[in-house]
Amino acid sequence: MAVDDADDGFHEVIALDDLRAEGRTLTAIDGTPIAVFHHEDEVRAVNNRCPHMGFPLTEGSVEEGVLTCHWHHARFELSCGDTFDPWADDVDTYPVEVRDGTVYVAPEPRRSEPPAAHWRTRLDDGLEQNLRLVLAKSAVGLLDNGVDSTEVVGRGVRFGVRNRADGWSSGLTILVALANRLPDLDDDDRKRALYQGLTEVAGDCAGEPPKFDQEAFDATGTSFDRLLSWFRENVEVRDADGAERVLRTAVAAGYGPEELTELLVTAATDHRYLDTGHAFDFVNKATEALDLVGWDDDERTADVLASLVRGLATAERAEESSSWRQPIDLAAMCDERFDRLDAMVADGEGETWTEPADFTERLLADDPETVFDALEEAIRAGASVEDLASAVSFAAVTRVARFATSNEFADWNTVHHTFTFANAVERAAERTDATALYRGVVDAAVNVYLDRFLNTPPAPTPTGDPDADPETALEELRLAFEQQGQVEQAASAVADFLAADGDPERLKAALGNALLVEDTNFHTFQAYEAACRQADRRDDNAERRTCLVAAARYMAAHYPTRRSREQTFSIAARLLRGERVDGADGGTAADGASVAETDG
Ligand code: FES
């Protein structure tokens, strides 16, 4: 133990002769565990906690100026603490003086970077090198040090769109979806959400070539209609480079969220249901990312939106698939209605549409003409894209809530794709009233029709027990996620909770926690976000229940998982709380086990 007798910040630690004989010693100064080494006639002091996972560095090896931790063999340049292994982080070093044969150490680290700055750097390192533990530590470290989650999301988005030639990815979609739901989550789950999203972004970019930009045209003053036409033509012929130049020109010309969204969603609906809805969903998520971080930076806006172009240009078009052509030519039915879309919209101008009581059932009909007629009548009666997308979203989430578990497991994704696509169309309609977007509504409705056999027989739709105990229902929901195949148990737990006047906010938080402790896949993240969004938008209790039952059923079908990501997160959180994670017992301040961590 160091003697606290210094006025200049240095503390007496050990006689130099003793240190020379022993090679190393461990001390604690002001609660900081410090390993002091005598090596090659020099005295060096470093934090005793390995910045990787906290193993005591006094138990490491020192050779030729390199300190090696014995747990995962991270190596540190002993004099400055810099690591040879970026996954481990640099270790703090401390000033040392030898006075009259006695070693003194000052506990202020030589490198005293503010914690938030440190974790920003480590976040970038974790993204660049796809380091899961570093990303977990960064998410915890940044939020614990008061950094706004929007900044963290923004760094992830900027990295993701710059470092993947193929552009916007599922990882970026997950990051933005989780960012949208942060208000539902408790403090620890917000950290988990950022960690999970950032991990997905880093994984998507790992080993991928970076994105190289196409420039905006030098020409100025090109009309929006001309830019829109050029953009559609380039996407039509699958010329991603040409489309990117047009898109960047539109950004440079100062067009805002409404026009830029119109540009993208029009091209995204020129063909049917691109890439089973993912292309449109990515468009929506990219614009939501800009809603979060701001549309005010033209360079960032252009980079984010340009990341969508390759996906739009290369997407599979549903009219090329047999299910849209046989036994009924649904693509041709769409074209026939689209030919009179302008006339339908003109008829509805000035009208206020009220959703008929049987509208959902008509959208769920077994006959496509019934579905097309319901939509056309609604448009002619003044229904907006947002009105219809909301109605179709509810029909689609009903398909998920009624999905029969006797189907092939993969078909969960079929109903899921329809739902998240419809939800994305509705979200996009909040940003633009482009007539072209009605085509997205029709695409979603056609898929609701195509998914009809996946509700045969329909799964039971629990209404819940009003006498249930909400706490018991939440516990039953948690238990349903602990065993495979507890789909109906999860549905019943949600219904009971809501019927017993449980707070929907608590239910969303509980679902969010379940989502974030599992090795959740892309679709399940999407399902949770879309269902919670739809639940938030509905005043009707039965509709809200359907949305949350759908989320719980989908999640229960996919859980439990190995939870390896949660293990990493737990390690990071414990390390930053100063807890020991190496499994050794009896940690003390001096061995580095129970001292609050300020380093990597
Ligand atoms: S290398 Fe030191 S704890 Fe992992």
Automatic annotation (TrEMBL):
Keywords: 2Fe-2S, Iron, Iron-sulfur, Metal-binding. Gene3D superfamilies: Rieske [2Fe-2S] iron-sulphur domain. GO terms for molecular function: 2 iron, 2 sulfur cluster binding; metal ion binding. The keyword Transmembrane does not apply. Its cofactor is [2Fe-2S] cluster. Signal peptide: none annotated. This is Rieske 2Fe-2S domain-containing protein.
